[in-house]
Write a structure and sequence with these properties.
Length: 191
């Protein structure tokens, strides 16, 4: 990573997290619930028909995929292992605090290779450039999944998280779709 990118990404993460937190804090419970239900409706055309979906346990101000998950079965969630994510079949209720205190499935739960991955993010562009938490787990995992087969990657965000441009490293894996409560964007159309 160049020194310029090394300095730019942390500052962007901090700014975009603060904007997301401010937006979410401005919502009451009913408004946040309505946005998450709208997200499930918006993304339905991409998620219908998948056989091995993977989701995530939202943390803090991240948009919650709970209503999307209602239409997905069987569902898997990520576990951090050796610098990558592995996806294990699990009910959301069975998730326990794991790496970074993020809820994850038991290591003994059946592992799958997903055909759809719902991805949290700090920021994203319409072309599918994603700014994550900075650990690279999703980038490494998505590169591995794409090398071995077909997977649809959908970044989930509030509209406030969509930006015009983000710095990119060669190892950053693009999103196939970006979904907000207001729109579903096929990222290839903007590349």
């Amino acid at each position: 990573m160049t020194a310029a990118l090394d300095n730019l990404k942390p500052a962007l993460r901090q700014r975009l997290r603060a904007e997301r937190v401010g937006f979410v804090e401005s919502l009451d419970v009913a408004a946040r619930d309505a946005l998450e239900r709208a997200l499930a409706s918006v993304v339905q055309s991409v998620t219908s028909g998948v056989k091995r979906p993977a989701s995530y346990a939202a943390q803090g101000s991240e948009i919650n995929p709970l209503f999307i998950e209602d239409a997905l079965f069987p569902l898997s969630f990520p576990r951090v292992s050796d610098g990558f994510l592995s996806f294990h079949l699990s009910d959301r209720a069975a998730l326990c605090p794991g790496f970074g205190n993020i809820p994850e499935p038991d290591a003994r739960a059946p592992q799958i290779i997903p055909d759809l991955v719902l991805v949290p993010l700090v920021g994203a562009t319409l072309s599918g450039q994603r700014l994550g938490q900075g650990g690279g787990y999703y980038d490494r995992t998505l590169a591995r999944l794409r090398a071995t087969g077909s997977v649809i990657v959908v970044g989930l965000a509030y509209e406030v998280q969509i930006v015009a441009d983000l710095p990119a490293d060669p190892w950053d894996e693009p999103l196939d779709w970006v979904a907000t409560p207001k729109r579903l964007v096929e990222c290839a159309r903007y590349r």
